[in-house]
Prior knowledge:
The structure holds two protein chains of two kinds.
Chain A: H1 3-28, H2 30-33, E1 34-35, H3 49-59, E2 65-71, H4 80-99, E3 104-109, H5 114-125, H6 127-146, H7 152-167, H8 173-176, H9 187-200, E4 207-208, E5 211-218, H10 229-245, E6 250-255, H11 256-289, H12 300-317, E7 321-322, H13 323-329, H14 332-344, H15 355-378, H16 386-411, H17 422-425, H18 432-452, E8 458-459, H19 471-483, E9 491-497, H20 500-517, E10 524-525, H21 533-544, H22 549-559, H23 568-580, H24 586-595, E11 605-607, E12 612-618, E13 632-634, H25 635-640, H26 642-696, E14 700-701, H27 703-728, H28 735-752, H29 757-783
Parallel strand pairs in A: 1-7, 8-14
Antiparallel strand pairs in A: 2-5, 2-6, 3-5, 4-5, 9-12, 9-13, 10-12, 11-12
Helix pairs in contact in A: 1-12, 1-16, 4-10, 6-21, 7-22, 11-13, 11-28, 12-14, 12-16, 13-16, 14-16, 14-28, 15-16, 15-26, 15-27, 18-26, 18-29, 26-27, 26-29, 27-28, 27-29, 28-29
Chain B: H1 2-22, E1 24-26, H2 35-43, E2 46-56, E3 64-73, E4 77-84, E5 88-93, E6 96-101, E7 106-110, H3 117-126, E8 137-144, E9 147-154, H4 157-163, E10 165-171, E11 174-183, E12 186-192, E13 196-197, H5 203-209
Antiparallel strand pairs in B: 1-8, 2-3, 2-12, 2-13, 3-4, 4-5, 5-6, 6-7, 8-9, 9-10, 10-11, 11-12
Amino acid sequence: MELSRQKWTARALLLAGALAGLCCLWRLDLGRRISTDILDLVPRDERSPELAIVRGLAAQDEARVLLLALSVPRGASEDEGAYEQRGGRLAGMFARALGRSPAIAEALKLSDTGPRNDLAGAIFARRLELLLPGWLEARRRQYASSGSAAPWSAWLAERAAADLEAYIARPEALATQDILTSDPILLVPGLAGRMAGLAEAGAAEGRAGDYWLVWARSRDSPLSDSGQQPVFDALERALGEVRKADPGADLRWTGIARFAAASRLRIQRELATLNLLSIAAVALVALACVRRAHRAAHLAPVILGSLLGAWVVTAAAWPHLHVLVFVLGSLLAGVAVDYGFYLYLQPRARPDEPYLERAGRLLRPLLASALTTVIGFSILLWSDLPLIRQLGVFVSAGLVCALATAFLWFAQIRDPYLETRDFIRRRFSGGGAAGRTAARLLLAAGAAVALVGPWRLQWRDDIRELEIPAPALKSNDVFVRSLFGQSPRRSVYLTRGASLAQARSNLQAFIAWHDSRFPDAPLLSLGSVLPSGEQMQGLAQQLSALSPFEGDFRAALARHGFEPSSFGPFFESWRAQLESAGRASFANAAEGVLASLHGPLAALVHRDPSLCWFVSTAEDGAALEPPPGTYTVTDSQLQNLNRLFARYRLSALRLSSVGLGIVGASVLVLYGPRRGVRIFAVPVGACLFAFGLFGLAGATLNLFNLLGAFLGVCLSHNYAIFSAESALRGEEPPPSIRMSALAAAASFGILGISRIPVVAALGSTVALIVLSALAITELAPMARSPRGQSPTTTARVKPS
Amino acid sequence: MMRPLAIAAFVAFASALAAQDAGTVLDPGNSADWRPLLDALAARPTVVAPFTERRYFTFRHDPLVLHGVLRISREKGLSLQYTDPQPSIVIVDSAGLVLRDADGRVRTLPAGSREAGSLASLLPILRFDLAPLYSRFEIRGRRAGGDWTLDFVPRDPSLAASLGEIKVGGSGPEVRRLEFRRSAAQRIEIDVGAARTGQDFGPDELKRFFR
């Protein structure tokens, strides 16, 4: 092809590609497609129960809760009573001001007894329906074990009257005496005793030291824009109103919105910083290794073309992309520049060798290395995790675009050859036998590490490592939650079921397990207010045996000094219960109670058509995970999702193995079995060495180390191919291998310092593998016997 | 003609008697006369006294009678050790209430909760530091010779309905009687026996009877 025509054709194609890419990117409106919601990293159709609960928690009101602690400075001569009144008044003012904001759905002082009173009222109104089945069941067991000869009804009446007499001697009776005429069998006081901790969990007095506690719920999801800044503004305005009354008032608060907003900001900054630093690191390597450094600028279009192509293809393929794809995508800079190195640094065979001829010599190794990597990454399309699928497409598309851009860019510049500095081309002389021995010892030591270390590896995934840790926000969160009564010893459990009745039945199994493991730490759960399905079914039969109970109970009350006529309200309810027994259903019993839940108590139970759960708490400081048969998870299991991610890790391992198999098979086909095995041994050896080093260092690896290893293997596989190609031609390995490895190590080393733990894991793994591969390619020729040491002294090897 | 006048005079006399019986409303401005007595009551670092409590319920013929030992520590709060009919301990301190039953079960109620109710109010009252109480209670005082009575009526009507009125009576620097009164049929009377004051509590006693 005529040179000028070749140049203009390349320029036209480059321009057309760039314009088309930019146009697509603009039309795709990337800003709207990028998500920072961590749950977007997991498939929408994921069936894992833990994840379904996490999604439910994120979607339900609980995620919108804001815990607010208003501090009010104490006046110099202010007495406690006046201070308490003033603090309470200011907290009320704050809650009202907050409640007026359209961004806030509900705001109330924690001391507001409305939610608790409404729940208590609903339970009291249905006390026989809800609590009688469990009460009768427990008493029946006691009757059976007592061996009493008295009839069941008479025994029960005597026991209930004795319990009532004992109860009124207790201090709690002073507060509940008004309801005892309606509830002499102590259904509600008994429940209040069991559930006391639940009421205290909300710091019922609404005050902790100098902080007055306010509970609020935002109208929109904390993961959306409208659930963040408008909420922050509403808080500012409400605090401003309080400060008009008391300028010293201040606010400490926590909520998912705060974490989500901070996370988004930090990830955006991380994205910009990592990409810039990564490109700068690659540029620095290039500048250090080439003469006429300004000409290294010709490598930039290769990187830019690669990134543009990757962004366009990935954004076009998915309507929602997690921002982490772009953070990890910055690794492309270190990979894409390889093709620029290989083309730009390849010396001419003769001074007048045309570009196309020179590029033609590189076509086979370039295509071999690029296409095997693309095939390998394309395998990730079969991953269960959207993030991995997106990353596979991002890297594959980026590499194809990098190769195309490199071919076209260097076809249209005047001098498409960049001379490297001497040091990057200089080969180690080997130092004779001593050098050979040293190289062999190093390779042997590396092999030992590769064989022993990987067995010591520990694997663990934690979804929280996908985000940048925020210690200040976390410690603020712990502080505010402690004001609201939460402590590290308090465990939170979620017991699920496909329906409320099933969840209640599972809760029964969980309560039994928990009571056996932690007998001194009673479990508190709103679910225990509801009768189980089995109890409801047995109620009709229980009541049919208690027709004489009213008479027996009246007599027993009189014997214990009570006036039976005072308990008319109870006997009316009892008779109504006898008449309706058998018609009561679990759903009816539950509905009345659940409909009364609002405010902080609404989080104690979750209902939707396919998944329901009850929240339970216990001061057990438990590190135990409940057995699967209880259908219960702890909140810490939900926070890390390790079990779920372990499954994804296995899936990624399978896919990586398939991808590696394909890469290896491609090499064997292209280079024959003997040479193919030697080529493939370099990346595999480097990978095993890196894992061995991690294992010996006691590191705990995760899914992203595995992905990094896959990428590292693909990259180092390129070095092995180019080294083998040079050996085939009887030439020294090209300097582009060293530059490529150093650029990749620099680029991924930058990712290794990321504050996002998984990004750091991926970066450090790739950097270690490419450096190991470079070391192997350098040491292997030195370790060989003198006969085959230097390619220049051996006969040219025919390509297979 | 004489009869209406006599009735009017009787009504006026009865009203005056009732007003006299209602005592003086105390506030920070007019409690100086009470200061020496209150200071003497408040100055006792510790008090230990037996008590007999009678609980009157609307649904019982006779009051329920309980016996026990009352302990007051200026630092630690108030402790009621019930010994009969069933042993239990109630501790009232600035953090709220602690209930310990004979089986060792412990239940805590935060200060200000409804269940803590009237018992929680006892602590500031028995410290006889009236200043923080003026804002929450209307306080009336009556004296007859060495005997005295202080009535505390919650200013918040809903609190008054649930707590009722608290009466503290005594003779000289001794508390003799406490009463929580919601109505004639619903009240608690506590007769306090001879008190020992100023005797420090040992570590075991503090651990057992206070938080």
